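This part of the workshop introduces the protein records we will be handling. To make this concrete, we reproduce a full record directly below:
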Amino acid sequence: MIRRIGLFTFLIAASYLAASLSIAQEKASEKPALKEKVEAKFSAKCPVSGADAKKEQATAYKEKEVYFCCEKCKAAFEKDSSKHVVKANHQLVQTGQYKQTKCPFSGGDLNKEMVTKVGGVNVQFCCDKCKGKADAAKADEQLTMIFGEESFKKGFAIPKAKAE
């Protein structure tokens, strides 16, 4: 009887140990996957044509880069960027090269509760009045209001590099 209890205890302990080792191995195999930096898929629209932009079709703009679908659009932008400022500024924010720092209308501090989506980008405002102004506008008008040169200068900036 004592042998059976001892054998039974041994089998339970062995099962527990095997399960613990299996879980530990699974966790160990997950760690390298978690540490790997996952690069987000590039996604941007050409500010000239509206087609999908390509990383290799880029030009310098406001100390960063704007991306285009083809060489023809890139050349058109380089010849006269003033026609495409709103969409180029929008792309800078969309690609994370610029971040919102202030309300684009007033230049005031941002209120996390005052958010609306403009061209696929979450935009914050300082107050309900500014948010209401953006919400009342149609899609193209919203883009111009938020990413036009004056509003862009008030509300967006190149993110500061993180100290390592």
Remarks:
- The longest helix spans residues 2-35.
